Amino acid sequence: MAAQWGSMKTVKKPVNKKYIIIAAVVLVLVAVLVAAFLVGSQPRSGSVSDELTDAVLHEEKKVNLFGWEVNPAVISAFIVTAILLIFAVCVRVFALPRFKEVPGKFQLVIEKLVDFFDNMARTNSPHSNGFLGCYIFSAGCYICIGTLFELLGIQVMATNGYPVTLPAPLSDINAAIAMGFMSYLVILVGGIVKSGARGLGLALKEFSLPISMSFRLFGALLSGLLVTELVYYTISLSIVLPVVVGVLFTLLHALIQTYVLVVLTATYFGEVTEPRAHSTAKKKRGKRALKAA
């Protein structure tokens, strides 16, 4: 009995590894912030207004593409498009034939991703969702991967002789406008094909939709750059804090902007493609609910 009691006293509960990792991360962040305070900020070569102006207009830092001077975001757009197309071809040729009834980790991720966009299309547009699911899947992947692309920090040489980091494709206002108008074009064509003149009228009624979509994308990505530059230029923690802020804003924008654009596209597509009978019945139910209230 004494031996058993002694063995029971020596048994200790295992320490949860999660708490150890969290504590280690917190200690590293505190140490880095203290070091940044002690070192202080370094003098900047340019003003924050110049950096922000060039980030929006790209007047100085242009890149040579086959003899044409283009914005760095154009190079980013080509690279992101190539990455997505190559990945899609590889999945179709090598991974898809090996999919099983009991999915593995990679197959489970792909199926969850496809189901997410497919369910969103069916929920918001139950009467016509075949092409809609494909479009919001493609647009969502492009926005998310394109936004995360700037975390790679790939640098190229600009025409003025200075290196420039390739930004997110949609940080160029032209790319954001193209994405907004493309989504609106899908809504407009879907309304014409499914509902004829009525769908055309409903789509044209939302004439400000492409502008709001475009500037929502562009403004969200630009706000991350704005906050990072302001932190970098005005706070003494400019050694570490801009990196943390930039990564957090990039991750948040990649998820939030992807979700917002695909939800808006699916919702308006469902409205313009809804059959007239269902629309009338919905209005009658709404009037009855108002009377009952």
Written description of the protein model:
The protein has 293 residues and is mostly helical. It has one domain (44-292). The chain is built from eleven helices and four strands, in the order H-H-H-E-E-H-H-H-E-E-H-H-H-H-H. The chain has helices spanning 2-10, 17-39, 48-57, 72-95, 105-124, 130-149, 173-195, 197-205, 209-234, 241-272, 276-292; strands spanning 63-65, 68-70, 155-157, 163-165. The strands form two sheets. The protein has a two-stranded antiparallel sheet. A two-stranded antiparallel sheet has the order 3-4. Strand 1 and strand 2 form a beta hairpin. Helix 5 crosses helix 6 (130-149), helix 7 packs antiparallel against helix 9 (209-234) and helix 9 runs antiparallel to helix 10. The model is unreliable at 283-293 (pLDDT under 50).
